[in-house]
Structure formats: structure tokens, C-alpha cells
Specification:
Chains B, D: It catalyses: N(6)-[(R)-lipoyl]-L-lysyl-[protein] + 3-methyl-2-oxobutanoate + H(+) = N(6)-[(R)-S(8)-2-methylpropanoyldihydrolipoyl]-L-lysyl-[protein] + CO2. The complex is a heterotetramer, with 2 copies of chain A (320 residues) and 2 copies of chain B (353 residues). Chain A has 320 residues and is of the alpha/beta class. Chain A contains 13 helices and 12 strands. Chain A has 2 domains: 170 residues, Rossmann fold, CATH 3.40.50; 126 residues, Rossmann fold. The chains are: A alpha/beta (320), B alpha/beta (353). Bound molecules: thiamine diphosphate (2 copies) and magnesium ion (2 copies).
């Protein structure tokens, strides 16, 4: 996936001279995950810039560049290191278009490697999507496949609105085919059709849900589980999601972020609002616990895995 | 640093005494001083009128720049039309002097929109409320202009309190490292709401902060309009020529309370205010102009009349209720409204955004 | 309410020499809402300190003070001006106890005036509670009554955990009786018993819900609406809330914050998880819209009022 | 500033050349130099061993301070036991020299806990990963100690890259305004991961940033252990005496990659590394000690043996899998676990937190 992202950035730089990349170590080094590998060499320091080490400064100057008409793409080195830029994101990036009655759109992409499962030490594995979802004015995208990594990132950069683009760290090494066209952002995709229950997920949880759905255990229980990859958390694709949930009458939301006030809360709430009388059981949530992200040696107990997903499916009141 | 061009601290330190023009025997500039004065008079009237309008409930709040008009006017006049101004929430007047419609400039403070004017029309960034956050914007914009090869300089305004924010630091550092064509003007009015400078900084001066970024610091008498104009013009010329950013500290004073909602009597003595009233920027420049025969009673009367017209425009523009449409809630949140926003607009019973 | 808060701070300062207040304009001026009025005069500059203007610096130094054993109480001047301190809050305040295996608790209170309805200009009316709820390691309290303003703030300051204490701006001028004892944090309180449906709310929405419940319109429709004041968002009082919802079988969550990924999402989701088969209709949400907080002249259209609450109650599928 | 004590910039500017002791003909200090050397040798061995353990998967990651041991050792030894050390993520060694158990010090990097040691036992704040965020903590703690009347000074470590963060600025400003007894040591090793200093700052030196806060800046050769020790001791004494904070910049170099996960060959030439290898802090002090007869072959051998023991301790301590209990996930999130956490622990099938 890292290579697909690299390719997306490369093509965006090549296609549009107003695209500029900014971040820590993204130039000579090519980023700590090598997502910008080779781009400074190919496009020069001014298109792919190693900034001083200051995240508010990075996002703040990128905002100024976007105000001048450029399309900055910012890399935050890790999820938790985007927090210093929180005020710029919430108070400016998300509001510039609105504030100026549309006169000053802010086409800016903030790439944030997020989530755990890579053995990262403290502050290197946060799932911070709830913060961005709760901030009106931001689009929030997160790919789960190589094709989406390329396709959604191109869409994000081309968007006239700011996009928080969350890259699942542990999928950086995932393999897959590049596809020229993927469905537009804002559209969820059914990764696996199914009739028994619907698993709603995004980013790093998609492979987990697919593994659960394809598992021996699921087959043994006779469960045919649908897996919906949300792809975009804002705007949310109520249509696809609700159609799938209505079909099966049972749903489980799966994500790594803490459960309390996490993304799954919104998903469960809105699905329930819309599909209440189709539901045989309340929408279940399988999430990270409500704790600071644990140290690497303990993270496997924290991260939702196929077993926890299946346990939640089992809890969906099949006896009724 | 590691850079052959790195300058020594001596080149970067500000002047020991604030730069002054008025009262130094400097030759008056007939091209600029009368124009400065004209805007000072208009500006004072603008401030006074706006404060009155808050009392009448026509503005939600007004942070007046009364006493700081020399900085406001010089900042606006120092720029070329192609340049950009980055005002803080106190700098409505600078935007008006630059040409922004005097009523439209008050959208934020009237409360019908969060600024609302088109920043690109006159190259005036939205009035910025979160302190110092506009500084990195100015740096980024100036940097972008340079990357595009455009001859554009940005001037960013901030208060003494704002210099304590991390964004101030990060912006100045980026500007210096990138050699961005940007000038930072600190209007040091001695207070951040109630907090005096001594609780804000222990530095010899705020301009001394420049050294730590490798840019020159300049200190200027902020009530001496020609002095502010000349220091800013030098700094802007330097930036325009590729010399990089400058930090300018202007020593001034806010004669009114922080806003109409504030009670300045709680934190500063009347004698202090009175002392600064004696250094009123209008009086300082007016006296010098008169001394040189550049200001007559007739001219003064004409200026006051012009200023009264401006005040009347304000009163008229703010005298009626602004046109409000609840549908505006959903406008311009995104380029295309999301299905959710359309649904919410429907629920509120307004036309879809 | 501002006076009750002032009294709580005063009493805390008097009772415990390790309590220190820090913030912008809280000394001589007494705070822009006068919540700290007179405290610097009474306890000195070192107990009630006007800091430099830098929110991360305020919370960061307060963190250091707490590490030394003091109990700092920080005032953020307005909701949106707490964002610069977000990294300190999320990455340190919320985690210090956990990080040190309990060796270094962090007894720190962050007071944040929040919400709208006071005609504030941009950045002065945010409802940011979703951010804090989604951050494991923080308690989140918000009073709706004068008695709770005093009682909960005293509890917050006495807590050995960090507390984000959200003060509803538009209730600063609300009147009421001080009471020495209020129920502990973590406990919701039924402000009005009722049998038809349960309104779940906190902070500024409590008076709105009470007004709806007491309204002519409600009486005309024959609705006897229960109003539950959550008081504490973290930890959440599932017991009281679920007991009330089960009793009525219908619930509406009301808050000012944006709905999408807002506090109501969690509340609706967890109530549904726990009370599914008692619910005659999906839990409804009446919230601010998913927009940047609007300018003052438009805010009344944004803020949930009694009419919108009643409209939501009407939508609770009474025909079934 | 508004303060009679405000010092002029001259008193605050750092020395033009980094302060050095070794090779200047200064008299050796038999009380301290051999002890410094002992810790340098142990420290180097600690670094090397830890890096080897990453290769064996015993540590999640190790940001080595190889080449920077003079700063690490001097920082630890400059402090009194009652003082506080605020290390960054690279400063495990300083914590170990201060007395922290060499295995316990690696909790963060081993990955069984987010540091986990008791900061109060030896007055060592948790190793801090978010850059510069530990600096305001140091200021607050030092301020609190002074409010309590305790004779306690805090020493906070940060990298050259960290000086660009807003928290650096805010911390130094608070420290100066409050005259807090705190010393900031910037280990300027020329790089923030791959980003060289020239892209980080355009200042004449990082120590020049001190002027903008009204505190003295000091520049020191960071590979000259006695020089670092003496500058830090002066600064700490000044802070202890109520003189307020100091910013010390130590010029040094990280001889290894950023961490074991990094490939330094991508961003810096071998020749540069080699040049710094010639200025190895161990070699510099060792040679001087030998010249003065304070280091013999026997002594050297004994030190190496002691260092090998330390390495063996590390290997032994990290050789076994740490005791892990999933119930720990729920421990110490709050003073008393919430009902929700108890429920989650139950769901995971572990004892309630
Ligand atoms: C980030 C942030 N924190 C706090 C505030 C609240 N506030 C508004 S103005 C002000 C004082 C500003 O002082 P200064 O920078 O000196 O500007 P002045 O008001 O004197 O023009 C404060 C604290 C804010 N607007 N933004
Ligand atoms: C706030 C924050 N942003 C980014 C990072 C990621 N990061 C870890 S170390 C590092 C470079 C630090 O450079 P410097 O301050 O010079 O310290 P050094 O590594 O050289 O000791 C970066 C960018 C971080 N830890 N914290
Ligand atoms: Mg000021
Ligand atoms: Mg470094």
C-alpha cells in the first residue's frame, strides 16, 4: 500500500503543478514509511519539502499555501504527532471555506498514518479518527486496499475541500493491484456479500472482518457474513450501509479506536435510527478498549481480531 | 547556520531605542504624511463609531484599535495592492484602510457571518481570532507566492500577547528557514486583555525574539505613523528583494478597553492611560504637520467631515437588521453539501444548501 | 452559576494549599467571566496566576506542577482556545498515571467554558466535549445546576485523576441554591421523573429539556417526559440512564454539539445496546447541526430548543 | 521589560565559540573527570548493547545516544539527587547514569509498558516521546518546587529538532517570566532524523534563542564532557540561586542512525560521520586523562570490564520474555476503574483492573 500511495503522490505532482508535499523527513529520507520515496529527487525540494519539526507550523503554512491557490499535501509522521496541529485543523482548515462564504476553499490533504499493530512504542499507534469525524468541515477518508490507497488519495488531493486521509499503518506492507478507477469517496463498498449479518468496518479492520467472514468458524456456524468497507467516514454512505444492514438484520461495527465515543458509536447510532425495525439485535461494536493505546507487547490483546468479531456475531441474539 | 550567509547577532538585534521620525527634525514627506493623517482621522472616527454601535446592539462586540491607529494605517498603506495583509481580530481598521468596505469589514463583529468577505478581492485574509494562528498562514502564503514567482509580500499583524503562542514561534522559524517574503508586525500595546507585558515576556524587547530565528528585529514607536510606515516599508522592501522576513515591534497603547465588554479600570491605572493619551498618534502627527504648514484648520475640518461621512456610512450600513437566512447555516460547509447536511437543512425546513 | 464556581474555587484554595489556579486573565481581572473574581486578591498571585498567553504552555506547566504534587486548576478562556493544548491533554494529562503504572497520578482540572447561546463571535461557542470523551484517561464533567457547579467542581479538584470540567457558558448567569452535597460524579440524576419518554441531556441542554417537558405542548399531547441530567460524561452512568429508558421505552438525547460523531452517538449507541428490547423506537438525537458553529445572529436556528425536542419526541413512533 | 532587572542582550547572548575545556590547558579535575570517563565507557557499552538487542528483537526500538554520551553523562552528574531530570526519548542513558535500573529504564523501548518506572523514586520524569512536550513539564515542576520552598532544580533535555516546536517556545517563555529554576539542554546533534540543522533553523545558533526570552544562552562543545558538566553546573547553580533559567546548546553528533529502524546513509555522508568519530567524546576525555596520568591501561581494562558487566545485566534482564498480563491493559487508567473498564476486562476474560 505504501507504494500505491507513493504512486498517487507522484502522479498528482506530475499532473498538477499546484500540488506540494510538506512534512518531516519526507524529502531526502522519503518519509519514515517511505511513502514519499524518490519524490524530492524527481520533483525537487520545493514540491516535496522537509519542513522544520513543528506540526502546527506545517499545517499552518500549508493552510497559507492553500489560501494562495496551491494544493498542499501534508504528512504527519504519526497519528499522535498530528495533535499539535489540532487547532489549525479545527479552527482554520475545517472552517476557511465556510468563513469566507465559499470565496476561499481550502484544498488541502492531511495524510496521517494511524492505528496500531506494528509494534510501535508510545504515541505511535493512536486511532484518532473520532476527533476528525467530530469536526464539521473535514472529509475523512481511509483506504483498506491498495487500489483505494491510490484512488482515494488522488481523489483527496483533487478535492476542493480539506481531507484528513488516514493511512492504516499496518496495511502499508499489504499487497494488491492498482486500479485506475475506484468508486468515489463518500461511497462504501461491499467487500464480501453475505446474508447472515453485516460487518461494518474501515481501514485496518477490513482485513480482520474479511478474515472473520472467511473463517472456518464462521462456516461451521453457518454464518454468511457481509463485509462493508466504509472507505470514507465523512461524508458517510448511509445508503449502502443501511441497505446492507436491512438485508441481514444484524450488524457489527469493528474498529481499532477506543469504543467509547468512538467512530462505531456514530455508525451504530445512525444505522439504528435508520434500520430499527429491521434489526433483530442491537448493532454490536467490536473496538479497542477505552484505554490509552497499550505498549507493543500488549497490543494484540487490545486489537479487535477475527475471534472477537465472531464472538460479537454470536451475541447477535440468534435465538429469536 | 551551516549556512555561509548566517548573520551574526549584531546584524539582527533591534535598535536600542524605538525608531522615531516625528520630533526628530526629519523632513516631512508631503506625499505620505498628510495621507497618513487623513487615515488616522478617519480611523479614529471609525473606531469611535463602531464602539458606539456595540452599545446599540448593532455589533456583537468591537475590539477597538483606538490609540493604535498609527500601526493600523501604516500597515495598510505600506503594502502594494498585490501584497497580502493578515489581520488579527483587532485589525478591522487596517482592513478598512486597505480598502475593504467599512460595513463588510464588520461581518465577524456584527455576527452575521464569520468575516464573510472575499479575501482574494483585496488580498486581506479573514480577521483572525485564535491568537497567532494567522502567522503561519502568512508565511505559507508568502512562500507559495515566491514559489509561483510572484512579487508578493505578506504582512502579518499580532499582539504582544500573541507572541507567547507556539504558533508565533513556529511561523517565524518557518519564515526564516524558508526566507519567505513576510513581515511580522507586533503591535505591543502593553496588555493582553488584562495581562501586562511583564507577565508576558522577560525579554529585553519583543523584537529581540528575531535573533533566535535568524531574522532582523526592529523596534519602532508605534504611535509615530511615519516611523511605523518607514520601518515597515524597509522590511517589506527587504522581503521583496529576497532578503527574508523581519520582525517589527511597534510600541503603542490601546486607549480603550480590550473590547466594549471589558472593564479596563480593573487592571490599569487612569494615570497610565492619560500618559498615553498625551502621545496620541493623531495629535503627534497633526502637530508636526501643522508645524510644517501641511495641515490647516480648513483641511482639518474637511478631514473631520470626511470622517463623519464614514461614520454615517457605518451607522447606515449597520442601522438595519442584516438579511439573515437560516439556510445559510448549511452553506459553504463543503464544496457540495453532503447528503447529511441536505437532510438537516430539510429538517430545519429550509432550502437545501 | 459563575458565583458558585467562584465559591468552589475559593473553598478549594482555602482547604488545600496544593490547589493552584492558572490561566489567562484569571488574576487581576478575575477571568473574562469573573469566575475567579477576587481570588488573586485573597490568595495571592502564586495561587491564582495570570500566565503568559499560551494554552499548551499553561496545561504543560500545570502538568509539571501536578507531577510535583500540586493540584492545578487550569482555566481555558473559551472552548476553541483549548485546542492549542490538545497534545498536552491527550498525550500527557490523560496518560501520566497509566504510563507510570500509577506511580504518578495527575490530579489536574481543566475548566473550559463551552457551548453557545451567548452571542459569541467565531471560536467562542464550540461544544468540544466529543473530543474529550473520546480520549481515554480523562474524566469529563459538566454541571447544569448551580449546586452541581459547586459540588462537581469541588469533586473534580479533589479527584486524583484529571478532569475536563465543562462549564456551560450560557448558564453562567443561571441562579440557584448552593448545596453542600451533591451526588458524586459518575452519577446521573433524574431532574424530572416521567413515564412517556426519557430526555437524556447534560449542561446547557438540561434547561432546554426541562422546558420541553414542562411545556404546554407536552401537556397537551399528554406526554409525561422524564429528564435525566448526565452530569458526568466520563465515566458514564449506564445504570441510571438505562433504568430510566427501560421505564419509558423511548428516549431522546439532546445536546448542542454537532450530531455526527457527537456525544449523543455514544449515548444512543450504548442505550440501544443495553435496552434494545425495551425500546419502542430508536433513540432519537436532537443536536446542533454538522456545521461549524454559526455566527451569533444565526445561532438560535442551530441550537436545539424545546420545539425541536418535542418534535423529536413526536417522532418516537407512538402509533405502534 | 517594564522590569528594572531586565538585562540587555549583551548579557544574554551565548559565547561566540562553544565553551571547551579539553585541550585548552585547563587543569584536570580528579574528582569529576575520571568519574565522567567511567560513565562514558559504561554509557557507550550500554548504547551498543541496546542496539544489538534490537536486532535480536528484545527491544522494539532503540534511539541510541552513541556519540552523545558526554551530554548524557554530564546531564545526569550535574544534578543533585533532589533535582529532577526530564529526558526525551533519546535519553535513556542519562536516566541510567542518574541511577535508574538499566533494564527498567528500557520499559518504553522494550514495549512492556509506557516507561513504567516510578518517576518520583529518582526524580526522573518519564522518557518523553512527543518532542518538546516535556519542557513545559520541567518548567511547571521547577516552579512548583520553588512555590513550595524546596531547593530543587529541573534539567530538561531536548534535541535540535525539538526547538522548532511551539512547546519549546512556550516553555522557555514561561520559565523566564516565572524565573523558574530550570535549565534547558539542547543536544544539537545536527539532525532531526534526516533533517539537517540548516532546514531547522536559520539562527546564528540555537543558544541565541535565549535572548528572545530574556534568559542567558550558553554554547558548549557537547563532546567535551568536562565542558558540558561545567556549563550545566553553572546554569544549575544560577537557577538554584534564584537567577532563573538558562538555555544551553551543546554541539554534538549522533554517530549511529536515528534508531535501529533508520538508514542514516540516505541523508548524511560517511565522511561527515568519520569526522565526528574523530571527535568521539570517549577518546577526547580518555586522551586528556592519559596525558595527565589519570587513566592507565589497567584502569581502562577495569572500566571495560565494568561496562561489560553492565552489558551482561542488560542481556540477562532482556533475555527472558517480560511477564505480561493482559489485565494490565486496564490497570492505572484511572485511580478507580470505571464500571465500563471493569466490564471490558471481564469481556476480555481477565481479572478486573
Ligand atoms: C488562542 C487564543 N487564546 C485566547 C484567546 C482569547 N483572547 C482574545 S484577545 C486576548 C488578548 C490578546 O492580547 P494581545 O495579543 O496583546 O492583543 P491585543 O488584544 O492587545 O490587541 C485573548 C487572551 C484567543 N483569542 N485565542
Ligand atoms: C511532536 C512530535 N513530532 C514528531 C515526532 C517524530 N520524531 C521522533 S524523533 C524525531 C526527530 C527528533 O530530532 P531532534 O529533536 O533533533 O532529536 P534527536 O532525534 O536528534 O535526538 C521526530 C521527527 C515526535 N516524536 N514528536
Ligand atoms: Mg496587546
Ligand atoms: Mg537532533
Amino acid at each position: 500500500m505504501a507504494r500505491a500511495l507513493n504512486r498517487a503522490l507522484r502522479d498528482a505532482l506530475a499532473d498538477d503543478p499546484s500540488v506540494h508535499l510538506l512534512g518531516e523527513d519526507i524529502g531526502t529520507l522519503g518519509g519514515v514509511f517511505r511513502v514519499t520515496d524518490g519524490l524530492a529527487a524527481e520533483f525537487g525540494d520545493e514540491r516535496c519539502t522537509d519542513t522544520p519539526l513543528a506540526e502546527a507550523g506545517i499545517l499552518g503554512t500549508a493552510t497559507g499555501m492553500a489560501m494562495y491557490g496551491l494544493r498542499p499535501v501534508v504528512e504527519m509522521q504519526f497519528d499522535a504527532f498530528a495533535y499539535p496541529a489540532f487547532e489549525q485543523l479545527v479552527s482554520h482548515v475545517a472552517r476557511m471555506r465556510n468563513r469566507t462564504r465559499g470565496a476561499m476553499p481550502l484544498p488541502l490533504t492531511v495524510r496521517i498514518p494511524y492505528g496500531g499493530g506494528i509494534g510501535g512504542v508510545e504515541h505511535h499507534s493512536d486511532s484518532s479518527e473520532a476527533y476528525y469525524m467530530a469536526t464539521p468541515g473535514l472529509h475523512v477518508m481511509t483506504p483498506a486496499t491498495v487500489a483505494d490507497a491510490y484512488g482515494l488519495l488522488r481523489q483527496a488531493i483533487a478535492s476542493d475541500d480539506p481531507v484528513v486521509f488516514l493511512e492504516p499503518k499496518r496495511l502499508y506492507w499489504a499487497k494488491g493491484e492498482l486500479e485506475p478507477d475506484v468508486p468515489p469517496g463518500g461511497q462504501a463498498v461491499v467487500r464480501r456479500p453475505g446474508t447472515s449479518a453485516t460487518l461494518l468496518c474501515y481501514g485496518p479492520a477490513v482485513p480482520v472482518c474479511l478474515a472473520a467472514a472467511e473463517s472456518e468458524a464462521a462456516r461451521e456456524r453457518g454464518w454468511d457474513l457481509a463485509v462493508v468497507d466504509l472507505r470514507t467516514l465523512v461524508p458517510f454512505d448511509d445508503e449502502t450501509v443501511c441497505a446492507e444492514v436491512r438485508r441481514t438484520g444484524r450488524a457489527v461495527v469493528v474498529h481499532e479506536a477506543a469504543g467509547f465515543a468512538g467512530p462505531g458509536a456514530e455508525i451504530a447510532a445512525r444505522v439504528t435510527e435508520r434500520c430499527f425495525h429491521h434489526l433483530a439485535a442491537p448493532v454490536a461494536r467490536v473496538t479497542g478498549f477505552d484505554i490509552p493505546y497499550p505498549p507493543p507487547l500488549l497490543e494484540r490483546h487490545h486489537l479487535p481480531d477475527a475471534n472477537r468479531v465472531l464472538a460479537a456475531v454470536a451475541g447477535l441474539q440468534w435465538e429469536d | 547556520m551551516g549556512d555561509a550567509e548566517a548573520r551574526s547577532a549584531d546584524d539582527l538585534l533591534p535598535e536600542p531605542e524605538p525608531h522615531r521620525v516625528l520630533g526628530t527634525g526629519a523632513e516631512p514627506e508631503p506625499e505620505t504624511w498628510p495621507e497618513l493623517y487623513r487615515h488616522l482621522v478617519r480611523g479614529r472616527r471609525y473606531n469611535t463609531q463602531a464602539t458606539v454601535l456595540t452599545r446599540q446592539g448593532r455589533l456583537a462586540v468591537y475590539p477597538s484599535s483606538t490609540g493604535q491607529e498609527a500601526c493600523q494605517v501604516a500597515a495598510a498603506l505600506a503594502l502594494e495592492p498585490r501584497d497580502w495583509l493578515f489581520p488579527s481580530y483587532r485589525d478591522t481598521l487596517a482592513a478598512v484602510v486597505r480598502g475593504l468596505d467599512p460595513v463588510a469589514a464588520l461581518g465577524l463583529l456584527r455576527g452575521d457571518w464569520h468575516t464573510g468577505y472575499d479575501p482574494r478581492a483585496l488580498r486581506i485574509a479573514p480577521l483572525c481570532t485564535p491568537l497567532a494562528t494567522q502567522l503561519p498562514h502568512a508565511v505559507g502564503l508568502a512562500h507559495a507566492a515566491r514559489l509561483r514567482g510572484d512579487d508578493v509580500v505578506a504582512l502579518a499583524l499580532v499582539g504582544d500577547g500573541g507572541t507567547s503562542e507556539g504558533d508565533f514561534h513556529e511561523a517565524l522559524n518557518f519564515a526564516a528557514v524558508w526566507r519567505a517574503p513576510v513581515v511580522f508586525l507586533v503591535q505591543n500595546n502593553g496588555y493582553a486583555i488584562s495581562v501586562p507585558l511583564a507577565k508576558q515576556s522577560a525579554a529585553p524587547s519583543l523584537a529581540h525574539k528575531a535573533v533566535g530565528y535568524g531574522m532582523p528585529g526592529r523596534l519602532v514607536d508605534g504611535n509615530d505613523a511615519p516611523a511605523v510606515l518607514s520601518v515597515l516599508r524597509q522590511a517589506l522592501a527587504r522581503a521583496r528583494a529576497g532578503g527574508g522576513p523581519t520582525l517589527v515591534e511597534a510600541l503603542t497603547y490601546r486607549l480603550e478597553a480590550h473590547t466594549n465588554a471589558d472593564d479596563a479600570g480593573r487592571y490599569r491605572p487612569d494615570a497610565e492611560v492619560a500618559a498615553w493619551q498625551d502621545r496620541d498618534p493623531l495629535a503627534l502627527l497633526g502637530a508636526e504637520l501643522r508645524r510644517h504648514g501641511l495641515l490647516t484648520d480648513d483641511r482639518e475640518a474637511a478631514l473631520r467631515a470626511e470622517a463623519d461621512d464614514l461614520a454615517a456610512t457605518l451607522r447606515a450600513g449597520l442601522g438595519t437588521e442584516p438579511a439573515l437566512d437560516p439556510a445559510d447555516l448549511f452553506a459553504h460547509v463543503f464544496a457540495t453539501p453532503t447528503p447529511q447536511l441536505r437532510e438537516q437543512a430539510r429538517r430545519l425546513g429550509v432550502a437545501s444548501a
